[in-house]
Amino acid sequence: MPKGGSSAKRPDFQDVPAARRRNMAAIKGRDTRPELRVRRLLHRLGYRFRLHRRDLPGTPDIVLPGRHLVIFVHGCFWHRHGCNKSVLPQIRTEWWEGKLNRTVERDAQNIAALEELGWDVLVVWECTLGNEAALQSKFRVALGPPGLARFRECASGPT
Question: Quick one: which of 23, 87, 141, 146 has the most CB atoms within 10 Å?
Fold first, then answer.
């Protein structure tokens, strides 16, 4: 059975030019430019984090365990943001639509699973990286002051 649990047969892509196949094969799933920009910004702001925790649903890009918060850095095209960077290709439209819709469904399932486990989830879209001041503000609001993590109070009150 192919990865992801689907029993559908993978297309053979023989009609796709070799140059296009090489280009698509070179696209990375981690340590992408947008992810690196977010990591550099967080570090510069004084936040410390872990990367790609495989024990969490969806393997979040950035994990701040002390703040119980995860950050996904989503590419607008791959995760169907709806901005001008998320235009559906004109070739193999049905295949791309199915593939990208499955990605969106998987994103929603992973976010729901993380929230059920008590994690806060922040999604940063590729198209928002141009406005660094707004992104800094978003991080400061979501994360609080850098340095000591703001630990959650347990049900019995602070210790």
Answer: 146
66/45 Cα distance (integer angstroms): 16
Report the C-alpha gap between 124 and 130 in whole angstroms.
12
3-state helix, strand, coil in the chain (%, to 5): 40, 10, 50
- H or E element, residue 70: strand 69-74
If DSSP codes are grouped into helix, strand and coil, which group holds residue 120? strand
Residues with Cβ within 8 Å of residue 136, at least 6 apart in sequence: 41, 45
Q: Look at the alpha carbons of 61, 65, 66, 69 in this order and tell me if their dihedral is positive or negative.
A: positive
| Segment 45-96, tens digit of pLDDT | 999 999 999 999 999 999 999 999 999 999 898 899 988 888 888 888 898 8
Report, in angstroms and rounded to the nearest whole number, the Rg of the chain calculated over CA atoms.
18
Residue 70 CB neighbours (<10 A): 28
Strand partners of residue 113: none
